[in-house]
Amino acid sequence: MQHTWRWFGPTDPIRLDEIRQTGATGIVTALHEIANGEVWPHQAIAERKALIEAAGLTWSVVESVPVHEAIKQGLAARDELIANYCQTLRNLAACGIDTVCYNFMPVLDWTRTDLRYRLPDGALALRFDQVAFAAFDLYLLARPWAESDYSEEEQREARNYLDTLGQADRDTLVDTLIAGLPGAEEGYTLAQFREVLTAYAGIDAGRLREHLGYFLRAVIPVAEEVGIRMAIHPDDPPRPMLGLPRVVSTAEDAQWVLDAVPSPANGLTLCSGSYGVRGDNDLADMARRFGPQIHFVHLRSTRRETPDPRSFHEAPHLDGDVDMVAVIQALVAEERRREREGGARLPLRPDHGHQLLDDQQRATAPGYPLYGRLRGLAELRGVELAVRQLTR
Ligand code: DNO
C-alpha cells in the first residue's frame, strides 16, 4: 500500500522534512485556508503540490474537499455550491491529483469529549465518554427535546457528572465538542450551534440520504470524467447524535452510497477507527466486500468501554476492538488483485495517534502528533510486510 501522512499545510507544526523521515511517501492534505464552498483555484493547488514535491513527497489524497452545510440541508444555494465543488475537482484533476476524501456528517465532523485521556502507560489518547456527552447535550447545550433521547437514569448520571465539573472543565467540554476538531471545517459558538441544529428539525435520515444522493448524482459523473476517485468518510462516531441523522455508519450505508450512483469514481474511505466503534461492523469483512471501491484507508483502533459500550477511547493502532491483522490481510489481498488485474494504488494512512514522549510538549492538532502516528505507521507497516511475506 502507499503509506501516507496527514499534513495540515504550511501552518502544521510538523514539517514536511520530518514527515519524510517517518517512512511515509505520500501526503494527505487540503487547502484548509479556503472557505468551505469556494472553488480551489488551480494556481493555489499547483503551489501546494510543488511545496510537497520539493520535500521529496507526493500529494496522494485530498482530505477533504468539504461539503457545504447548504448541500447537506438541501437548500436552494446547493446548486451553485455543487457547481463550485465540481470546479474544484476539475482543478485538482488538472494538477494531477486523483483521490478526494469527504464526509456527509451534518454540522459536526468527528466528535470527542476528552482530548487528553491518560492511559496507564502515560500516553494521552482521545476519548468519547457517553456520560460527558449527555451532560453537554442536556445541560450545557440544553438542546430542546434532548430529554427524549435519554432515560431517567442517564439524565441522573449526566447531572451527577456535571456537578463534578468546575467552570473551566465545563468550558473545555463545550469547546471540545463544538469548536471543531482538526479537519472539521466549521467551528461554532453555543448560540450558533443551537441555531444550526434547528435547521435540521425536518431532516431525518431519509431526507439526508436524498440530499446525499442529489450531491452524488451531480458530482460523481464529473469526478469520473476527470479521473478523480471520490472516497466518502464514515461518521465518527457512527451513529446519530444530538438529534442529527447520520447515514454513513454501517456496511449497509456504504452499500447505499455505492448503489446510489454506480461508478468507479464513487468509492469509500475505509476508516477502521470510525466504523470500528460499532461492534456490528466487521472491518475485515468490509475490506473484502468493498475491495475495489476502497479508494483510501485510515487505520487505527478504538476500545469500547464498560459498562456503556457507546463510550470508547482510541487504543494503540493494533490493540483495540478491530482485528487489524485481518483487515490488513484483506487489504493486501485487494492490492494483489489490483496488481494482477490493474487498478489504482491503495493509499493508507495511520489515523490518529497517542501523544507519546515529546508529543506531550509539542502542540499539534488533537489526534495528529508526531511520535504517536510514527509508532502507528511503523506497526502497520510491520504487519503489512509480515502478511505479504507469509502469504507469498
Ligand atoms: C478526523 C478525520 C475526519 C475526516 C473527515 C473526512 O481525524 O478522520 O475529520 O478527515 O471526516 O471528510
TrEMBL record:
Gene3D superfamilies: Divalent-metal-dependent TIM barrel enzymes (3.20.20.150). Transmembrane segments: none annotated. Keywords: Iron, Lyase, Manganese. This is Mannonate dehydratase. InterPro entries: Man_deHydtase, Xyl_isomerase-like_sf. GO terms for molecular function: mannonate dehydratase activity. Belongs to the mannonate dehydratase family.
